[in-house]
């Protein structure tokens, strides 16, 4: 018992130390896993290293490389421009369009990549008379929904960890749950922040606001969410204009971009087709295959995509899961599950785990929470009283929907990109309330709609 508790204390202590020193959590976790495995568990070093999740590494590297090519050759910019141009002055549709665009970009490997829509969206909101809070939440919910796609980080970590533990969780089911929940939250944002007024004034051009110099736009590092960093002010590097481009202003798709779009549709279509035929698609291998084809079409963009591979997140997830493997060998995870079961009511234990996921994720790395909490919840699943797929879906989504808190990278970026500086204190206040509300609403909503029916049926 002493060894298990000591290992768990070290596990939590590494999280705290990384936060205090602003150090890379994955590197510290891997070193700590080696120390605990050798010193406390007396494990051979080969067994410790074997816990590093090579399958998840292949997924992350393959997916971020493939979509890195789409970013490098400008395909993403062309898709954004085409979508915005079709909306025109129908302002009521703009938050929905930004939800879809952000979800699409977030689904391309790195969830924080969706934050490239923040400067554009907040500028469009200012020019079109849309409440910045509504636009911020449309971007935030879109990012959360897309992040659980089978091709994106949160989805990869969540279903990858579940499947490694023997829990039958379909990537498409996880994605569908995230999309539905975030659409419900977007609908609530429409009700609370001026959606009905936009509907009444739909199609009527808004009075343009005072233009803001491009130097005041905010750009975002679209790297992995393992190491959150505040947004910084600089000249926007997005190729998309805050104004909705007209047909004559849009650049046509090049041959390489058309090939990239075909490859993107092919990747998604292959994943769906294999899943529907009860075969588990190896998304990382598929991404490498389609990426290899694009490399032959466009070698220059492929070279530029190499630095976009999300190595920091690979290290983050790998270090945490390696330590979790040591904890499992020691028996600390089983002990944690026994303590959770002592709550008496499995439903309360599920609510407690989801509450912890949301509360900690509002201030820390969502990826880290997913990699740590999903394995710790497995003993509760093993008891047979809780449906595993439902609980893991609930943990994942609860950890993500709080990310609009201004204490996280997503929320801080949304506040920083608000055009009207006088609105920023209001945005900070409202996003704080929304994020903290999700800490409570998320577990009740997810456990009530997924776990409870799964226990009854």
Automatic annotation (TrEMBL):
<feature type="region of interest" description="Disordered">
    <location>
        <begin position="206"/>
        <end position="251"/>
    </location>
</feature>
<feature type="domain" description="Dicarboxylate carrier MatC N-terminal">
    <location>
        <begin position="1"/>
        <end position="147"/>
    </location>
</feature>
<feature type="transmembrane region" description="Helical">
    <location>
        <begin position="258"/>
        <end position="276"/>
    </location>
</feature>
<keyword id="KW-0812">Transmembrane</keyword>
<feature type="transmembrane region" description="Helical">
    <location>
        <begin position="92"/>
        <end position="113"/>
    </location>
</feature>
<keyword id="KW-1133">Transmembrane helix</keyword>
<feature type="transmembrane region" description="Helical">
    <location>
        <begin position="283"/>
        <end position="299"/>
    </location>
</feature>
<dbReference type="Pfam" id="PF07158">
    <property type="entry name" value="MatC_N"/>
</dbReference>
<feature type="transmembrane region" description="Helical">
    <location>
        <begin position="133"/>
        <end position="160"/>
    </location>
</feature>
<feature type="transmembrane region" description="Helical">
    <location>
        <begin position="311"/>
        <end position="331"/>
    </location>
</feature>
<feature type="transmembrane region" description="Helical">
    <location>
        <begin position="172"/>
        <end position="193"/>
    </location>
</feature>
<feature type="transmembrane region" description="Helical">
    <location>
        <begin position="51"/>
        <end position="72"/>
    </location>
</feature>
<protein>
    <submittedName>
        <fullName>Citrate transporter</fullName>
    </submittedName>
</protein>
<feature type="transmembrane region" description="Helical">
    <location>
        <begin position="376"/>
        <end position="402"/>
    </location>
</feature>
<dbReference type="InterPro" id="IPR009827">
    <property type="entry name" value="MatC_N"/>
</dbReference>
<feature type="transmembrane region" description="Helical">
    <location>
        <begin position="343"/>
        <end position="364"/>
    </location>
</feature>
<feature type="transmembrane region" description="Helical">
    <location>
        <begin position="434"/>
        <end position="456"/>
    </location>
</feature>
<keyword id="KW-0472">Membrane</keyword>
